[in-house]
Design a protein that fits this description.
The complex is a heterodimer of chains A (about 190) and B (about 675).
Chain A: E1 5-15, H1 25-33, E2 41-42, E3 49-54, E4 59-64, E5 80-81, E6 84-85, H2 126-130, E7 136-146, H3 155-173, H4 175-188
Antiparallel strand pairs in A: 1-7, 3-4, 5-6
Helix pairs in contact in A: 3-4
Chain B: E1 8-13, E2 18-23, H1 26-32, H2 36-46, E3 60-64, E4 78-83, E5 90-95, H3 99-106, E6 110-114, E7 121-126, E8 129-134, H4 143-154, E9 160-163, H5 166-169, E10 177-179, E11 182-184, H6 189-195, E12 198-204, E13 209-210, H7 214-233, H8 258-263, E14 265-266, E15 271-272, H9 279-292, E16 293-297, E17 307-310, E18 320-323, H10 326-334, H11 339-352, H12 359-371, H13 387-400, H14 405-408, H15 411-419, E19 430-431, E20 434-435, E21 441-443, H16 446-454, H17 475-483, H18 491-499, H19 514-534, H20 554-562, H21 568-589, E22 604-606, H22 609-623, H23 633-638, H24 642-650
Parallel strand pairs in B: 1-6, 7-12, 21-22
Antiparallel strand pairs in B: 1-2, 3-4, 3-6, 4-5, 7-8, 9-12, 10-11, 14-15, 16-17, 17-18, 19-20
Helix pairs in contact in B: 1-2, 2-21, 7-20, 10-11, 10-12, 11-13, 12-13, 16-19, 16-22, 17-18, 19-22
The chains are: A alpha+beta (about 190), B alpha+beta (about 675).
Chain lengths: ~190, ~675
């Protein structure tokens, strides 16, 4: 083993559009799993996977919530694949100001797929488990990377998620207002 | 907080335009659960029995199943309830798809329409914002186009739409309500919607559906999913391939149609073609089907793929979504050997919004009348010489209610009587004025006799289920079958199945004994009634053999979802029996009596009138009904429905030649 190399775990969901039956179980179970008390409610609008579904155009496209972005892209993409015309931004994972997707319906805060990280861990993300059509399949592999590139551990994920939300609030209301609110909350504590 | 249900109904008076969000009484959920149960209760409480189904006073209720929108796989059904213009009884057609979950997410258990709009309108339900919108630009539009236009207008592709086509607008008595790949087709619900000048209901919701005992509920759901996966690899043996798996019969995926084409009747439920299914037919039909089916598709939160997107160049209209059996009904009704015709006319008919079960039978009936000189060239000007052409011709006449189409639009029963001249003799396949499955058999089947006769849904596929339709010839196979048949409700029913033989002492019509026959019928019916309250699709529950949902896990699932504590006894003997008797009472109040509880004359060649009468007597007794098939006052009282019994008594219904024995 070469010095300075480490392995990192890559978690991958393969998406086979031809196998999707458009049932939206992925959205349902995602929102149920992430409810606070798990499974106590479900609401596809809170899901971190979104089914873009236009049956008569034969468009069945599951998309996962990725990074939050404060600004729209400079340009947009429109894909045409085998004659199917996808809408602008359909393939994009970002929670972004140009659209409603991947935002909590109540707060407007951004959502991001966390691969159902859990303690004890789930065997596979629940959208994959509930997809009996095998449109979604799960793969884990180890990759060698330079030392120092290994991503932060799971404990940091909660922190990351919180900071992402604060950043979104700051983008929406301005950092000053958010800081003032925090200060008021601290006082009450 | 309310669990599984939202606790709110949306009341829309189309005459005044008044819209109200009304909190519902949790006590009614405890009594009737949701879906069909509470729909029936509303109909009983609010619509007087003398109401004309097409009058503004009739209600049209879109009720979600109690578990629709929860994680329970396949819980997605909308139960649409009203009085039927065709049967004049209660109609409760149902549809799958995505409508019920979306309505729940918008915050409603039901939408209840009353009155009649002065102009054609559609309803837009967007969470708490509800609008009545002009639909004049949608007048005459097909259902697929209507859905697309509404989505464009609302600038939201995730909106779910239920709509009627021209047939509904013209109050054809078998007009359907169409939604995505599903439809509430039976008994003319689309005609009632048309009579209210309601073209469509569009809904979008982004709220939560809550679960009372989440850990318990999800565990049960996971078991259901696991069993669905297991069943995919373990089809039931000794039954036709189309019945071996789960879901609705897999008409879109499976090519082998030997069973439907050779066991069911063609034309006006007349001819069996036992030799029809040959290798050449199979090859040709398979290639037509493969060319037509673009993708197999599902309803909300269901892994079964019972539907398909149908797309190919010779379609009269655009692409459409098809389910189940409609690919065959027009083919067999028209006596055409060509599956391509089936896909083409079904697409056109679905666009117009007619029931693909009834419509082909009405057309076949009209052709018989023409061939026998009862309808003439005067009634059918320029009637094409070929069957395909005639079906397309008749479809247009019917949905436009043009010429003879205005009569045929009322279905076989009413058309036969309006045409007269002996036409009644060709009304050979209706029960309670409604077209039935075109199947004609040899020996009386006592179980199916009771289901056909007494089933309030008036459609056998929504009454039967779970029991193989014929005995397995080998005893070893029967013993093997019951080994993992944990879905059976009792040992008695397993014993019946092991004993049941194609002929001899343990064969129809005198086997099984009355008690077992009654138990078998009640079990099958009860399972459907449970599904009709929960909104779980029959395709995963009451219909297929060895389903993932059954009487031993449903009480726990309903309890975990709602927070009510319901065991098997409470569910079967109280709630479902209550709903069953309430439905019977509703129809009794609309005039249903023993004389109406009968299958078509020629349904079986070998009939046994005395034995049949005894079967009916025993079954009524078993249900707590009197000899006229009316729930007795005592039965109703024991089910907390004394006010129902009191109403029947006040109306003198118990006095009409039949004393109520138990009170």
């Amino acid at each position: 083993m070469t010095m300075g190399k480490k392995t990192k775990t890559v978690k991958l969901i393969n998406i086979d559009l031809e196998k999707c039956n458009g049932c939206r179980a992925c959205e349902m179970i995602c929102s149920a799993f992430h409810a606070s008390e798990k499974y106590s409610s479900n609401n596809p609008a809170r899901s971190r996977i979104r089914m873009i579904r236009r049956p008569l155009e034969d468009i069945y496209l599951p998309v996962y919530a990725g990074e939050y972005t404060a600004a729209e892209c400079m340009g947009r993409d429109k894909y045409i694949i085998d004659g199917r015309e996808y809408d602008e931004c359909d393939f994009c994972r970002a929670s972004c100001p140009s659209r409603d997707a991947f935002k909590e319906p109540d707060s407007g805060l951004p959502l991001k797929c966390d691969m159902c990280e859990d303690d004890p861990p789930q065997e596979e993300p629940l959208c994959v488990k509930w997809c009996l059509s095998d449109a979604l399949t799960y793969e884990v592999r180890e990759e060698e990377v330079e030392d120092g590139e290994v991503e932060e551990k799971q404990e940091d994920l909660t922190q990351e998620e919180m900071e992402r939300s604060i950043k979104a609030l700051a983008d929406k209301y301005g950092l000053d207002k958010v800081a003032n609110s925090m200060a008021r909350l601290l006082k009450k504590e | 907080m309310r669990y599984a249900e939202t606790g709110y109904n949306l009341e829309i008076d189309l005459s005044s335009g008044n819209i109200e969000k009304v909190q519902t009484d949790p006590a009614l959920t405890e009594l009737h659960l949701g879906g069909l149960g509470t729909n029936a209760r509303i109909l009983w409480d609010r619509v007087p029995p003398e109401t004309d189904p097409l009058a503004p006073e009739n209600l049209l209720i879109f009720g979600t199943g109690l578990l629709a929108g929860t994680p329970a796989p396949g819980a997605n059904r909308t139960i649409v309830t009203t009085y039927s213009p065709q049967t004049l009884l209660m109609a409760y057609s149902m549809m799958g798809g995505f409508f019920a979950p979306e309505l729940k997410y918008a915050g409603y258990d039901k939408v209840i329409f009353s009155g009649r709009s002065p102009e054609l309108v559609y309803i837009w339900i967007n969470n708490d914002k509800v609008e009545i919108r002009d639909a004049s630009h949608l007048q005459g539009k097909g259902v697929v186009e209507t859905e697309e236009l509404i989505k464009q207008e609302l600038e939201d592709q995730d909106v779910q739409v239920a709509s009627i086509g021209l047939a509904g607008e013209n109050s054809v008595y078998y007009a359907s309500v169409e939604h995505a790949r599903s439809s509430a087709s039976r008994a003319g619900i689309g005609a009632v919607m048309g009579s209210k000048n309601l073209k469509a209901v569009a809904v979008r919701g982004t709220k939560d559906v809550n679960i009372a005992r989440p850990g318990n509920f999800i565990e049960l759901c996971n078991e259901v999913l696991g069993y669905i996966q297991w069943r995919a690899d373990n089809p039931v043996q000794h039954v036709p391939p189309i019945l071996a798996g789960l879901g609705s019969p897999q008409e879109m995926a499976i090519h082998d149609e030997a069973w439907h084409t050779t066991a069911f009747s063609w034309g006006n439920a007349r001819y069996r073609r036992k030799e029809f299914w040959t290798e050449e037919v199979e090859d040709e039909w398979s290639s037509v089907q493969d060319g037509a089916v673009q993708r197999l598709i599902s309803c909300y939160n269901c892994p079964m793929k019972c539907g398909a997107i149908i797309a190919y160049p010779t379609l009269e209209l655009s692409k459409y979504m098809m389910k189940c059996y409609s690919k065959l009904t027009y083919v067999m009704g028209a006596m055409v050997d060509n599956l391509d015709f089936g896909f083409r006319i079904a697409g056109l008919a679905q666009g117009y919004g007619v029931d693909s079960y009834t419509a082909p039978q009405v057309m076949a009936f009209a052709i018989e009348l023409y061939e026998n000189g009862i309808l003439t060239d005067e009634d059918l000007p320029n009637f094409p010489p070929d069957s395909e052409g005639r079906f397309f011709y008749l479809l247009e006449k019917i949905v436009h209610r043009e010429g003879i189409g205005d009569v045929l639009a009322n279905g076989v029963y009413w058309a036969a009587r309006q045409i007269g001249n002996g036409a009644e003799d060709y009304d050979s396949n209706t029960i309670k004025k409604h077209e039935q499955i075109p199947i004609k058999l040899g020996m009386l089947n006592p179980i199916f006799f009771l289901m056909h006769s007494t089933g309030e849904k008036i459609n056998i596929t929504q009454i039967e289920g779970q029991l193989p339709q014929a005995p397995f010839p080998n005893k070893e196979d029967r013993e093997e079958f019951v080994k993992d048949w944990f879905q059976a409700p009792s040992e008695n029913i397993k014993d019946f199945f092991v004993k049941w033989e194609p002929r001899g002492e343990y064969a129809f019509p005198y086997f099984p004994d009355f008690q077992t026959a009654c138990e078998l019928v009640e079990w099958q019916e009860t399972m459907h009634y449970i599904d009709d309250t929960t909104g779980i699709c029959a395709g995963l529950s009451s219909f297929p053999i060895k389903p993932p949902y059954h009487i031993h896990n449903l009480p726990a699932l309903i309890s975990a979802g709602t927070g009510l504590d319901i065991d098997k006894g409470e569910l079967w003997d109280k709630i479902i029996k209550r709903n069953r008797c309430l439905l019977r009472a509703i129809n009794t109040r609309r005039g249903l009596r023993r004389k109406d509880d009968k299958p078509p004359e020629d349904h079986w060649k070998k009939r046994f009138p005395e034995h049949e009468a005894k079967l009916l007597d025993e079954y009524y007794k078993f249900k707590g009904w009197n000899s006229e098939g009316i729930p007795t006052r005592e039965t109703l009282r024991s089910l907390d429905l004394d006010h129902v019994g009191e109403d029947l008594e006040k109306r003198g219904i118990y006095d009409n030649g039949q004393k109520d024995e138990d009170s």
